[in-house]
């Protein structure tokens, strides 16, 4: 049984929506649908009850879900065990980082580490949710992740910096002169957001749900510049991390702190259960001593 399809199944049970689940899995909605049908064919039972509005687990799906979670857990344990047995190149390191690494001075930090430590480093960039999976599966040795999701506490985390979620409105907006703003006050606005299914997108959805409304989303894009341009032209408002909004952007839009403040940290993460290589130890020691750590 293909564990990737099992992972897709778990994601669909989380979102109960093919579009959102496909976005999270970085595949098309039709591909996700085909994979779920293939899994149902292999098992010989329907796993979901489909309606026009949502997707709910069938009675068979309810029985299968805990076994699916156990299979993925065993796969992760197996990969970690096998990875730990491999002879490590003590001077090689694969580092993951969020795409906005420059905004958090991570390019400076990584460059200084490479030049001073002489460690052979390869850097990959991915969204936070993919970096977490890469760490768990041993595809990277360390990762700089924002807003780490770690319910089972498998990561060691060293905080690098923090950032705040801000409301971004056109300069001509009626709220442009406010010193701060609540999420509730934005309930009648059009929203321009980062991609559907991404962690920043889900953060906004959750915040709106906590305030008893669903945001009217008119545009999503992975490029901050496009989002800012649409906001400045009056299409809608956005919620973005403050350090992702450069000074050049702040000339065309108004950035307003939220009340209460919504803060997120950027952390250097490593898997607790894995014995640290010399290169990992060097990186952790360097980060702890660096003036980038906890830079606001």
Task: Produce the secondary structure layout.
Blueprint: H1 3-15, H2 18-25, H3 29-43, E1 48-50, E2 55-57, H4 59-85, E3 92-97, H5 106-117, E4 120-125, H6 128-136, E5 142-146, E6 155-170, E7 190-193, H7 199-210, E8 216-220, H8 224-232, E9 238-241, E10 253-257, E11 263-271, H9 278-289
Parallel strand pairs: 3-4, 3-5, 7-8
Antiparallel strand pairs: 1-2, 5-11, 6-9, 6-10, 6-11
Question: What are its keywords?
Answer:
single chain; 296 residues; alpha/beta; Arc Repressor Mutant, subunit A; D-Maltodextrin-Binding Protein, domain 2; 3 domains; seven-stranded mixed sheet; two-stranded antiparallel ribbon; 11 strands; 40% helix; 22% strand; flat; DNA binding; WH_DNA-bd_sf; transcription regulation; DNA-binding; WH-like_DNA-bd_sf
């Amino acid at each position: 049984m293909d564990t990737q399809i099992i992972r897709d199944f778990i994601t669909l049970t989380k979102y109960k929506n093919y579009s959102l689940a496909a976005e999270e899995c970085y595949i098309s909605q039709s591909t996700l649908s085909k994979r779920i049908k293939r899994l149902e064919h292999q098992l010989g039972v329907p796993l979901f009850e489909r309606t026009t509005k949502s997707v709910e687990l069938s009675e068979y799906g309810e029985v299968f879900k805990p076994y699916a979670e156990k299979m993925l857990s065993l796969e992760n344990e197996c990969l970690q065990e096998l990875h730990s047995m491999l002879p490590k190149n003590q001077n090689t390191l694969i580092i993951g980082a969020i795409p906005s690494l420059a905004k958090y001075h991570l390019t400076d930090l990584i460059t200084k580490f490479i030049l001073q430590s002489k460690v052979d480093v390869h850097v990959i960039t991915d969204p936070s949710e993919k970096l977490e999976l890469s760490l768990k599966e041993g595809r990277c040795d360390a990762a700089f992740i924002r807003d780490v999701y770690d319910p089972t506490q498998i990561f060691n985390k060293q905080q690098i910096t923090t950032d705040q979620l801000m409301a971004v409105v056109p300069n001509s907006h009626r709220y442009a002169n406010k010193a701060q703003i609540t999420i509730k006050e934005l309930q009648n606005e059009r929203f321009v957001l980062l991609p559907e299914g991404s962690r920043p997108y889900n953060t906004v959805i959750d915040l709106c749900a906590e305030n008893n409304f669903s945001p009217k989303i008119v545009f999503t894009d992975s490029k901050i510049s496009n989002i800012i341009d649409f906001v400045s032209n009056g299409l809608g408002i956005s919620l973005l991390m403050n350090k992702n909004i450069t000074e050049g952007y702040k000339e065309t839009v108004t950035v307003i702190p939220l009340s209460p403040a919504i803060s997120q940290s950027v952390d250097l993460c490593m898997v607790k259960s894995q014995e640290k290589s010399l290169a990992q130890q060097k990186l952790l020691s360097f980060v702890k001593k660096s003036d980038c750590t906890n830079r606001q």
